């Protein structure tokens, strides 16, 4: 199944080694679960909210 980047709309590629989806356009890394949750939030909330939440989330993920 194909996914598009929630950040820039570019195509996401699945990396088998990390089991994560990677956007080749903006460098975004997302697990499948994050991708699903993010797209759910995007539908339910205004764009700016979703982006801010996602950025915090992403930064926290990268630190750990
Ligand atoms: Zn992207």
What this model shows, in words?
The chain has helices at residues 32-44, 47-63; strands at residues 12-15, 20-23, 29-30. With 64 residues, it is α+β, with helices and mostly antiparallel strands. It has one domain (12-63). Strand 2 and strand 3 form a beta hairpin. The longest helix has 17 residues, at 47-63. It is globular, with a radius of gyration of 11 Å. It binds zinc ion (ZN).
Task: Please describe the structure with a list of short key phrases separated by commas or semicolons.
single chain, 64 residues, alpha+beta, 3-stranded antiparallel sheet, 3 strands, binds zinc ion
Order of helices and strands: EEEHH
| Average of pLDDT | 82
Total strands: 3
Helical content (DSSP H or I, runs of 4+): 40-55%
Question: What is the spatial order of strands in the main beta sheet?
Answer: 1-2-3
Number of domains: 1
How much is the radius of gyration in Å? Answer: 11 Å
Bound molecule types = zinc ion
Count of helical stretches: 2
Class derived from helix and strand content: alpha+beta
**End-to-end distance, in Å?**
28 Å
Largest sheet: 3 strands, antiparallel
Shape: globular
Q: What share of residues are in beta strands?
A: 15-25%
pLDDT < 50 runs, ≥5 residues = none
Q: In summary, what is this structure?
A:
The protein is an alpha+beta fold.
Write the layout of secondary structure elements.
Blueprint: E1 12-15, E2 20-23, E3 29-30, H1 32-44, H2 47-63
Antiparallel strand pairs: 1-2, 2-3
The structure holds zinc ion.
